[in-house]
Specification:
- The protein is an alpha+beta fold and about 375 residues long.
- The longest helix has about 140 residues, at about 1-140.
- About 20% of the residues are buried.
- It has two helices and nine strands; from the N terminus they run αββββαβββββ.
Amino acid sequence: MKNKLILFLVLLFCSSEHITTHAQMMQSAALQTEEVVLLDSIESLTHALDSVKSLQQKLNSDYVKIKEQVTNSGTLVDSLLEVNALQSSELYALQLTNDSLNARIQALMAEREVLIGYVDSLMALQEHKQQEFVDMKRWARTSWFNLSYSLQKMNSDLYRTELQPDYAFGVTFGRTYYLHKKPLANMIRFALNWSYLDLNMAQYSIPYSDRIDEDGSSSITDGVYGNSSEIYKVGNRIPGFIEDIYDDDEEGNTDSQYKIEAGMQFGPSIWVNPIGDLMIQAYFHYSPTFSILLDDELSYYSSYASFFNSGVTLSYKVIGFGLEARWGSSTFSQEVYNEELGDYESQNMKWRTKGMRVFLSFRF
């Protein structure tokens, strides 16, 4: 019994030891597992601590930088505040200056408006003066010079037919004197014209048989010549010449007459300036003239003659064109054959001139 008890105890002890060993082994395995887990946890914690440490270092570094920035920012803020205060004072001064400048600008704008008004007035006055200058220049061409060609015909007591010119030309110099300073309606002026030199020359070639004192069928019954031109009218031919000497049909004899006239003209005129530099003139002139009659044998006769001229000129600036009617008469003491005396004697022969003259005019 005792042995059994001892054996039981031994067995119980061995069983308990085995159980303990097994438990220790289990516990050891569990501890190893926990140790592994703990080591893993420690390693993870170490890594975490390293990360925290790195983060702390970074935070410390960032803190230092931020602190420096804050410190610098404080200084910069103070500087900026000082600059802002200074700029505020300057801005206030600039505002005052701006207000002053605005007031000055307003005053200058008012002066500008006044000056613009003055300038507009001056421009209008200048344009008016320029227009007056142009008008004065336009009206200032009062002197003129005409070159004319005439178609003047003549009737003479010495010839039976009307005389046609071979040629006739003239030269005229003159001047215009306006009767009022400013044009009426800015386009019309009345004036007096004075042509201080009017030269004309014409040649006429007439068959000698046209002379009234050439031999023919008509005769004067009383044989008295006198001074009356009635006895020299067509049909009152005076006999006394030998036909075989003065036969124009056979010999072709002609009587050439040259009529030279020198005189002047004066009379009223009206000038119209319808547009631009275009000038239109209408005039009527009386022309006292010294007239000379010259033949082929250089025998000449002189006389005073009264002529009248009426015409129209159209001018643009310097150059112009004109058309003129000219008429008048002159009396010459010419040699006419007297049958009773059997010789020539002086008789008063009247020459009547009429016709048109066209001329080129130059105004300056």
